[in-house]
Amino acid sequence: MSRLWFDVAHLLAGGILVLSFALIYQDRIAAVVNVFALQAIALSLSVAWQALVQDAPHLMVTAAIALLVKGFVIPTALHQIIRRMEIHREVEEVIGSGLTMLTGLGLVALSILLVQPVGEVSIYVREDLAFALAVILLGLLMMITRRNAVTQVVGFMSLENGLVLAATGAKGMPLVVEISVAFSILIAFIVFGIFVFRIRERFDTVDVRALDRFRGERRDVS
Amino acid sequence: MIGPVEAVLIIPASAIPILALVSGYRLGAALNILACALTLGAATALLFTAHPRSDLIIIDDFNIFLLVLTTFVGFTTSIFSATYLAHEIETGRLTPLFLRFYHAMYQTLMGAMNVALVANNIGLMWVGVEVATLSTVMMVGIYRTPEAIEAAWKYFILGSVGIGLAFFGTILVYLVAQEVVGDGLPAMSWDLLVKSAPMLDPKLLSLAFVFLLVGYGTKVGLAPFHAWLPDAHAEGPTPISAVLSGLLLNVALYALLRFKMVLAGNASAIDVGAIMVGLGLISLVFAAFMLYRRRDIKRLFAYSSIEHMGLITFAFGLGGPIANFAGLLHMTMHSLTKSAIFFAVGHAAQKAGTQVIEDIRGLLQISPTVGWGLMLGTLAILGMPPFGVFASEFLILTSAMRQLPWAAPLLLLALAVAFAAVLARVQPMVFGETNVRRLPHPPALLPVFTHLGLGLALGLFIPPFLADWYARAAKLIGG
Fold this sequence. Notes:
B: mainly alpha
């Protein structure tokens, strides 16, 4: 296979990683959602490219789902929620953007080091995995450092993007891609249908900090 | 042609839409019991049929034992659940609409756990664990109090991160196996993975296991990944606490053990046993000390579950036929006893109208059966002879003395600390002047005493076929 094929694959994977960083430094929730949509589109391109390279047409289904659901449907729904619920426009951070970005850089370095042993199997697989792992860890970082329920869920879906990237990079992996994509949709819908709705109903805010009143043991006798 | 394996999966799957549509809650509860009974029947039938094997499904000595245990506890819990829910409907904590949802989710959980157990495919097993997690998230949040929502949110976030990492580990295992076994389904089958284990790339396999350990370890509730567990147990409906503690933790540990079997076959991979011993010990000791200062009765027993899962993980970490035997026995005993305790706790909390330990007093005066059920269950889980937990804990302790002498004092210390802590909380709940009231519904005693009776019987005498079965499974898990 020609070098160019892999270069394109890496370009797309690298784009996803850059967008993961972009997710971290946004300070408006609406912008976070937009960047996530962009990442989902980049993911669908990457998956479609893998479908071509690996001659695996079923991956096209995965790509289409990523594009339609994660790229359009969920972001639209999120914008609706943000508008209708009049959520704070700013992202509430536990740690400042600068420090989070630095931690993110550290995580990328960590993922490159972690997948070092893969080099003996295949160098292309290794780079693919390093990208995917970095996206996963950055998604995790976002979930930890953002307080708002919407941004936490975006962090989780970005983590899922990393998983899909890894799974499609693994040549000929059966079943799992379709199933995992179906699940990511399910998760997203469930989260919005149930949690955000309920949290809104009970607290008039989707700031997860409002939940922290109850921590550990029950203090008041109910 | 539908064999018992297919039945174990199809019965819960077809019960889901039916239960979601049935509007009467009595009928719903009855159908739920029926579905669980049929699944139990199918699982039992598996004992007497040939063990099927395909690229997706496998039955061997290890999972058949867990499958029967899971469907059995699922069945008894559905009986308890019917009584429990009747009271919740009366007090208005739940509405019939929510019950339809609850029953559908209950069957989803049962079906998903069965998928995870019979899967011969690491991807399919992952799906089973994921669906089981999601369905329990829904049920933990069902009361919609701020506490329940926080518990469900925490469980959802931690559970899905864990499961995400486990998926990454699964992909890595596939990548390793693909080099040896070839593309496609076979590279994800348990039996082929174990067979080709010596040829797999050890470094990558070790890396994969780290992700799998953190991922599935979160679901097992091993410290330091346990943060979701006490909240989820305390805030959900009690039948769900019982199945979470008694079954779902086991299923997650089962997944981890399957991967341990693969790594054990590879001489150059990391020593999984040592890691499991370490994590098990940390969980055991940590949970034992956390048992002090607990005010909520369900939270108390949730920490006790972390303690026992730590002990089981420790036993499997030691490895070898005897420690594995002890681990399997303890898995069984813990499932039976802990779910019996949660049944009794559920009734006690309903009678007192609270889960706060200080406000539940003198159960014996108002309801001797629930009081004795709780007391005997507590003594059993604390390892008093002649209950079965004593036998398994004794076996684990002697294996530890032989294989890892320095760990034995730590085990004893943790068990003693747990004993003092739990007994001091439970004893005034059962004895003394009462403050609880009588409820119109008689408690469901059958599940409590069936479980305790089985725990007692197995403590006194393990029938030869069962001992054989444990020994074969222990051999399969290996060192």
